Structure formats: structure tokens, C-alpha cells
RNA sequence: GCCGCUGUGGCGGAAUGGCAGACGCACUCGACUCAAAAUCGAGCGGGAAACCAUGUGGGUUCAAGUCCCACCAGCGGCACCA
């Protein structure tokens, strides 16, 4: 019989669906396993070959865990709000809802065709009002607890489209769509206080099992630094507060810099002699786009404030104050003490403006460059700190400043609050109402979801407001508090909102009265294993951890962390080794692969392609090897002998393979698990195979290639589905071969190999080695000094010439 | 600039400090065929060999792809965070 993958795959997909095989039970007594992959954005271009890499990997884990008796939840849904859909809607005058519906249908067909064991009864969609009701509800809770606030923020503004752009739409400083200049413009935006959770987001990384690179990236993004705020007196007799991580270098502070946005410029305006120059500088700095700011980052600019200076508190010296945009108002206090000898930026600035550079830590060459890595140096030119190590100086100066009451220890974070507003249509409406009398008032809970109104045009207004701002009968409403006339917020939420809590909804997706029942959350959370792309490490992963912690704080969820374990897969690149993209013309369409080779081959190949965590280029010829393996698996089914226990010839390799495949699946080593299965098949071809052996092989192979194995399992008359059968067990004692081949080395260089019984003692091994002709010959001209034997591995003779 | 990752055959890649190149692709030869494809069998880092080979140069060790130090190259992320 021919291996007719198309018919087989269709047959089993239908059977699984009909029998609801992958439905997660609500049997809360069974051990559970919650596997999660990032739900896709259903784009118009359909599934990418990258999607199945992640989905197949956790499908394999899920299928194995089911066979091991777990109650497995492996859900799927749609992160369907977002820009491309909206842009498509604008261009084609179709409602984004319709676009989404079509794209979801296509994605779902494509996913179904891959035989992924998702529980489709729990499918969710972030654009479904029954879903976003709870996204809005969480937002209202954040608002209620003071974690949502409105503030004026610079946004990206395209001068030609006259609209606000998301960061993703700004490419190399210009508008992605029209190529025109993008400038900064102030706009009032809703913000979420993620910074309030910064410390906990770092600390609780200790509670979870994330790949180390993910933890490091999160920590870097949050960017904690410890230092002190120090007060400098000025000639105006007021206090300029700065932040520094290096109070020990205070004697080297030869000038100060404040940010162009610093409020003291106004405060001192009467005293500043060159105020017009300062204001002109400030104007240009404020209006620079982010792109311009970074473009000219190498070249420092600034203006000296004439008329006001500061006093260095340790030596009483009067030092000048500059305004420069290399100091950011949004970090620390917006003012710094500049220590050019030990900071590269200060050094550059000092060189340009010809300011004194005073070395305070010995060891560098400050004629040439700033000496920054000076943690092990010794203090100089620093009065009472001279001769101390940097660490000692830090301690002493801190005590000194504390005593004088001009310094306080301070921790700062790079992490900023989350800009939560989008001036767009296709997102969750922010459920707030503005009343002249009562201010911002939440839409009452029983009025949620606040639905998106039906409108005809999805473009922003000329002022960059959301298209919702044009719907006057939607905007104008009554204040829920006082009943007076009020206006709805017209901004919508960012795409990150719906994806920040979706994993909770899967546990109880149809619940009408709460986002998920207590019992469901108690049982299913936290997610046991979450796999996704590295590109989501800093935003999505951080945002969802933040929301989860907030929900924990208000008693909605039972765990501090949403995900016990997080892994990430590498990208699948085009055949030329570059990222797949339409413009590079190297995109592989998964539909065509499934059509030509079948879903099983596609799955197997994507798992065999290389190290799961690393990027790997697609290869049209390599996939044939995977297909060949399945053909050989199929062909062998005709020559299976009877037998209900393992034969002596195959016993050891079977136990070994069961062990290896099981361990490799848990350790993301799918490629070597498949290699072991290929080796096993080769061994069957060599030694013959019986029914018991072939059945074990099918079980091990099933999570990888579920359709063909299910078919081969059913052919001899098995009524129970393979997917529901028990995962094979192995016996550690039987994983060992009776005889082993060991290497014989002279001074670590291979001279021969010898065979001997497994676990032979050192004497037996070295005697056997010594009796080998090649070893004898090699030893004839030298003397053995020492013999090293590693059991079942090597015998190494350490020798010297006679 | 900073952070992270990666350098192993023609290619994808294997190797708890213990026989480098498992498994697969490509390729070569042979069988089958009128022929080709498919399939099956054999070979496949370099070198005649001694030996030499895991980006480069040092080091630790009886033994290094693996550990340490210093470089070089590529990829990804961040970007004036005091």
C-alpha cells in the first residue's frame, strides 16, 4: 500500500475533531499541564512557516504529556486587533471586522491542516466583545487603583499624512507609508504605571524557569541602577538636585548639565544673561525628532548658562551649569554632575567646550580618553578620599553627604510607564467618560463591553485623533456619576492589551460573569510552559507579567507569576540565510509544503531543521530526507514479525531510544530526538522488527508525526487511538549495551579501539588495551608513566620516551 | 558604544572535559531499468602515510569543540539612562 498522506491526514484530523480527543477536561483531580504558544495576529498573508515551529514543538510536548496521563490544556486564539488590518480596511473600505473574520478563517484552516492538538472549544479572539469586555474591565481596575493616568507625551507625527504613528510605523525616521518626515508632537495619552512594578518584575524572575537570555534581556530592559541623589547649592541660593551612580567621583565634578526641559530654566530666567540663546537651544531640542536626536548623538551640543552657577559641596568650588540635550528630563532628576575624567559623554562634552578634566581615580590615561572602568582604582585629587579604593570611597562619601543632609540613596529604572493610548479605530475602546464636573469617570461595569461603534471611515482626524472622534452621537453621553453631559474617551487600547491576559481566559473562555472562574484559575494557572519568539521578551512578556501581578494584588489570580517556564524558538530564515520577506522573495508558503509533502513531513522537518532555539535556514532539499524517513517507516510496516516482547537484538536500543526521546522532548532537543528515531528505524531494517518493537516506535514517533503513526497503529486492528495510548516506559538497566568499544590513547592521542564487556574494571580494560597489536607497537619506544581508565570510555597511557 | 548569541565537512547540524563530524541533505560509485525518477547497497573532513583538522593566538589538564585569558568575524537587541 502506498503512503497516501493527503487522505490519511484528512481522515485523522476529522476523527480527532469528531471524538474531541484534545479537549481539555475539567477533571480537576487529574494532574494538569498547561502548554501555551503565542496566539497569532491573523494577517492577510496567512500563516508563515515560522508559526508551526513553535506550535509543533509544544504540540509534541502536549501530545507526550497526554500519553503520560496529564490533563493537558493546549489552546489557540487570535490576537486580532492591530494596524495592518486597519490599514487594509482603510485602503479597501471594508470593515476591519470582516477582514479579521476572513483572515481568522484562513489561519484556522491552515492550523487544522497541520494536525496540531489544540482544544478548539476554547478558541478566543481579542476583538470579540465578550473577550474585550474583560480587557476593559482590567483597565478599569487599573484606573480605579490609580495605575492609569493621562498625561501629555510626545508622539510620532507624520507631517504629510497628518496623523500619529506607532513606533513600528516609523522606519529610519520617516513614515513607513509615505516616506515623509516624522516629528515629535505633544499629545495627551493614557499611561499605565508599570514602573511601580519594576522592582517586583526583576525580583520575581527568581521564581520562574525562563531561559537565561530571556531573564537577562528583561533585566536590561527594566534597567535598575543604584546611586544617590545629591543636592548642589547654586549661586541663586537654591538647590539643584542631581542623580549619580558614582558619588565617589564628586571631587571630579567640574561642571553641571541640566536637560533642556528642566524647570529651573524658567525659574532662573530673570537671572540668566543669555536667556534668548538658551531658549533658542531649547526650542530646537524639543522639536527634534527621535531620529534626529540619535543621528547627531555623536556630536554633543549645549549652551552655558551665564549668570547662575553651582557649588561643588565637597570643595566649595563654583562650577558652571550647561543646558544640553544629552541629559534627559525623563531619567533621574533631569540634571547631572559632570565628571569628564570618568564618563565618556561628559568627557566628549568637556573636550568640545574646553572644560577642566580632573582625574579622581588613578589608573587610566585621561589625556586620551575617559577612564570609566575604574572600579578597582585608587582615589586621587579627592581630599579626604585620597588613597581609598573606589568601594571604600563610595561608602565614606555617602556617609559624609548623609551627615550633611544633602544626599539620599536612590534607585532608578530605565523602564518607562506604558503609553496605552492609540488614536485608532481597531482596538478596544477605553471605557472612560470625561465630565466637566467630575473629571474622568469609568463606564459602569454593567455597561461593559463598551462596543466599538460601526463607522464608515477608519482614518484619523486631521488633528490626529482617533476616528471615533468623528462619531458625535457616540462621543456625547451622560456622566455616569452626575448625569450631566459628558464625552467619551476616543482613544483605543494598544494591541498589547488583549494579549496581556489571554492565557487566563483560556482556562474558562465562556464565562459570562467573570474573566475566569476561581476554580479554573486555581487549577490551570500558572502556565506550565510558554514558548514564543525572542522579539516578545521585552514588551509582551513584561506587560503580561505586570498585568498578572496587578491581578494578583487585587485577588483575581492565585499566582504571582503567569508563566512557570518560558522558552523561545529561533527564526526560520529563507533559503539564502536571510530573514524571510516578500521583498527578498524568499518566503516559503506552508500550504504548498503541506500539499506537496504532507503535514507530518512538514512538522518533522521543522523540528529536525536544527537547534530549536537558534535561527535556521529553510532547505527545500533537506525536507526530502524527512519524507524519506516516513516512507521507510511506512514501508517497514509490511515486514513486522509477530511478537509481544522486545527481541534481544533490539532491546537495548529500544530502551535507550525511549529514554532519549522522552528527555529530548522535555529539553527542546527535537532534532536529536528525531535523529535517535531515525537510528532506531535503521536498526530495525538491519535486525528485523516485531510487533511490540514497532508499536513502541510508533508511540515515540506519534507526537512528531501524529497522522501517519495513527494510521499505522490502526491498520493491525488497534481500536484505541494512539493519541490516547500510554507513553512507553524504559528500564535504565536495559539501556546499556553488553559490549562496549573503548578508545586507547597515548598521551591523549588515539591509537586504537578495543571491544570489551560493559562495566569492565580498570585492570581488565588496560590489559585488553595492552594486548592490542597497534598499542604494543606504539608503546615499544616508550615507557608508561601513568594509566588513566575511564569506565566504558577510554584507556589513556601517559608515556615518556625511553 | 553597551548587552546577548554564534563561529565544527560542500550544507543543516551532533558531541555529561573522554574515539570530533551522530542523524540528515548534497555528492560519487554500484544494483534494478531500454532509459530516467523512485528504491536498495557501498563510500563520503584533509593527507600516500606519519599525522593534521572545531574562527585566531595563548593557557589549564593525562585528555579541550567543551574550561580560563586575549583577539577576530557574523547575527540580534538597546541606544546619550548619568
SSE blueprint and pairings:
Layout: H1 5-19, E1 32-37, H2 50-67, E2 71-73, E3 77-78, H3 83-92, H4 96-112, E4 124-125, H5 129-144, E5 148-158, E6 163-165, E7 170-171, E8 174-175, E9 182-192, H6 198-203, E10 209-210, H7 212-222, E11 224-234, E12 239-244, E13 255-258, H8 264-267, H9 275-287, H10 290-295, E14 303-311, E15 318-323, E16 335-338, H11 344-353, H12 390-404, E17 407-413, E18 418-419, E19 432-435, E20 439-442, H13 472-475, E21 476-478, E22 485-488, H14 496-499, H15 502-505, H16 518-524, E23 529-533, H17 540-553, E24 565-569, E25 572-573, H18 590-597, H19 599-608, E26 616-617, H20 622-636, H21 648-666, H22 670-687, H23 691-701, H24 706-714, E27 739-746, E28 749-757, H25 762-770, H26 773-779, E29 782-790, E30 794-801
Parallel strand pairs: 1-2, 1-23, 3-4, 10-24, 13-15, 23-24, 25-26, 27-30
Antiparallel strand pairs: 5-6, 5-9, 7-8, 9-18, 11-12, 11-14, 11-17, 13-16, 14-15, 19-20, 19-22, 21-22, 27-28, 29-30
The structure holds one RNA strand of 82 nucleotides.
Amino acid at each position: 500500500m502506498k503512503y497516501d498522506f493527503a487522505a490519511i491526514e484528512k481522515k485523522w484530523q476529522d476523527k480527532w475533531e469528531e471524538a474531541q480527543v484534545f479537549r481539555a477536561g475539567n477533571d480537576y483531580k487529574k494532574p494538569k499541564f498547561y502548554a501555551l504558544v503565542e496566539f497569532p495576529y491573523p494577517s492577510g498573508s496567512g500563516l508563515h512557516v515560522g508559526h508551526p515551529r513553535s506550535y509543533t514543538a509544544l504540540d509534541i510536548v502536549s501530545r507526550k504529556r497526554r500519553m503520560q496521563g496529564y490533563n493537558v490544556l493546549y489552546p489557540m486564539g487570535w490576537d486580532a486587533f492591530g494596524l495592518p488590518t486597519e490599514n487594509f480596511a482603510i485602503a479597501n473600505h471594508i470593515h476591519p471586522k470582516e477582514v479579521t473574520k476572513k483572515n481568522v478563517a484562513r489561519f484556522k484552516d491552515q492550523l487544522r491542516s497541520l494536525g496540531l492538538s489544540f482544544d478548539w472549544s476554547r478558541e478566543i479572539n481579542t476583538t470579540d466583545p465578550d473577550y474585550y469586555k474583560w480587557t476593559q474591565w482590567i483597565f478599569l481596575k487599573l484606573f480605579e487603583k490609580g495605575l492609569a493616568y493621562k498625561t501629555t507625551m510626545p508622539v510620532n507625527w507624520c507631517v504629510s499624512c497628518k496623523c500619529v504613528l506607532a513606533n513600528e510605523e516609523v522606519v529610519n525616521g520617516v513614515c513607513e507609508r509615505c516616506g515623509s518626515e516624522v516629528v515629535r508632537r505633544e499629545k495627551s495619552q493614557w499611561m499605565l504605571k508599570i514602573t511601580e512594578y519594576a522592582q517586583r518584575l526583576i525580583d520575581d524572575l527568581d521564581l520562574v524557569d525562563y531561559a537565561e537570555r530571556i531573564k537577562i534581556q528583561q533585566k536590561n530592559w527594566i534597567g535598575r541602577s543604584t546611586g544617590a541623589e545629591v543636592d548642589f547649592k547654586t549661586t541663586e541660593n537654591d538647590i539643584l538636585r542631581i542623580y549619580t551612580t558614582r558619588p565617589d567621583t564628586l571631587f571630579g565634578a567640574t561642571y553641571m548639565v541640566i536637560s533642556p526641559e528642566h524647570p529651573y530654566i524658567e525659574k532662573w530666567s530673570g537671572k540668566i544673561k543669555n536667556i534668548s540663546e538658551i531658549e533658542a537651544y531649547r526650542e530646537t531640542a524639543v522639536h527634534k525628532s527621535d531620529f534626529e536626536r540619535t543621528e547627531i548623538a555623536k556630536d554633543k551640543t549645549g549652551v552655558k548658562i551665564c549668570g547662575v552657577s553651582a557649588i561643588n559641596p565637597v570643595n566649595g568650588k563654583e562650577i558652571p551649569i550647561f543646558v544640553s540635550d544629552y541629559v534627559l528630563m525623563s531619567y533621574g532628576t533631569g540634571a547631572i554632575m559632570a565628571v569628564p575624567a570618568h564618563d565618556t559623554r561628559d568627557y566628549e562634552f568637556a573636550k568640545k567646550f574646553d572644560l577642566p578634566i580632573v582625574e579622581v581615580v588613578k589608573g587610566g590615561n585621561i589625556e586620551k580618553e575617559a577612564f570609566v572602568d575604574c572600579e578597582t582604582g585608587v582615589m586621587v585629587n579627592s581630599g579626604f578620599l585620597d588613597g581609598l579604593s573606589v568601594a571604600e570611597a563610595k561608602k565614606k562619601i555617602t556617609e559624609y553627604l548623609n551627615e550633611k543632609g544633602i544626599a539620599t540613596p536612590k534607585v532608578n529604572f530605565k523602564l518607562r510607564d506604558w503609553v496605552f493610548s492609540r488614536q485608532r479605530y481597531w482596538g478596544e475602546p477605553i471605557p472612560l467618560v470625561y465630565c466637566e464636573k467630575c473629571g474622568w469617570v469609568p463606564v459602569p461595569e454593567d455597561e461593559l463591553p463598551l462596543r466599538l461603534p460601526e463607522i464608515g471611515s477608519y482614518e484619523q482626524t486631521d488633528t490626529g485623533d482617533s476616528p471615533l472622534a468623528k462619531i458625535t452621537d457616540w462621543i456625547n453621553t451622560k456622566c455616569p456619576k452626575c448625569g450631566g453631559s459628558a464625552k467619551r474617551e476616543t482613544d483605543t487600547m494598544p494591541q498589547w492589551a488583549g494579549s496581556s491576559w489571554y492565557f487566563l481566559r483560556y482556562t474558562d473562555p465562556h464565562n459570562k460573569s467573570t474573566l475566569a472562574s476561581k476554580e479554573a484559575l486555581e487549577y490551570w494557572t500558572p502556565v506550565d510552559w510558554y514558548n514564543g519568539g525572542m522579539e516578545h521578551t521585552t514588551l509582551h512578556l513584561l506587560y503580561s507579567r505586570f498585568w498578572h501581578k496587578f491581578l494578583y494584588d487585587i485577588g483575581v489570580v492565585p499566582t504571582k507569576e503567569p508563566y512557570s517556564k518560558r522558552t523561545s524558538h529561533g527564526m526560520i530564515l529563507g533559503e539564502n540565510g536571510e530573514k524571510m520577506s516578500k521583498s527578498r522573495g524568499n518566503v516559503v508558503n506552508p500550504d504548498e509544503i503541506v500539499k506537496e509533502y504532507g503535514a507530518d513531513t512538514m512538522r518533522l522537518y521543522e523540528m529536525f531543521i536544527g537547534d530549536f532555539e537558534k535561527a535556521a535556514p529553510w532547505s527545500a532539499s533537506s525536507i526530502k530526507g524527512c519524507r524519506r524517513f516516513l516512507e521507510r517507516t511506512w514501508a517497514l510496516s509490511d515486514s513486522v514479525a509477530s511478537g509481544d516482547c522486545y527481541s534481544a537484538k533490539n532491546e537495548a536500543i529500544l530502551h535507550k531510544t525511549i529514554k532519549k526521546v522522552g528527555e529530548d522532548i522535555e529539553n527542546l532537543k527535537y532534532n536529536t530526538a528525531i535523529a535517535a528515531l531515525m537510528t532506531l528505524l535503521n536498526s530495525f531494517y538491519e535486525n528485523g522488527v516485531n510487533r511490540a518493537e514497532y508499536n513502541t516506535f510508533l508511540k515515540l514517533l506519534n507526537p512528531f508525526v501524529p497522522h501517519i503513526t495513527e494510521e499505522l497503529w490502526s491498520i493491525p486492528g488497534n481500536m484505541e487511538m494512539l493519541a490516547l495510548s500510554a507513553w512507553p516506559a524504559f528500564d535504565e538497566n536495559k539501556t546499556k549495551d553488553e559490549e562496549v568499544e573503548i578508545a586507547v590513547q597515548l598521551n591523549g592521542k588515539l591509537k586504537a579501539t578495543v571491544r570489551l564487556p560493559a562495566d569492565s574494571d580498570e585492570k581488565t580494560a588496560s590489559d585488553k588495551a595492552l594486548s592490542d597489536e597497534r598499542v604494543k607497537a606504539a608503546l615499544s619506544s616508550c615507557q608508561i608513566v601513568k594509566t588513566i581508565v575511564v569506565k566504558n570510555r577510554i584507556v589513556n597511557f601517559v608515556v615518556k620516551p625511553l
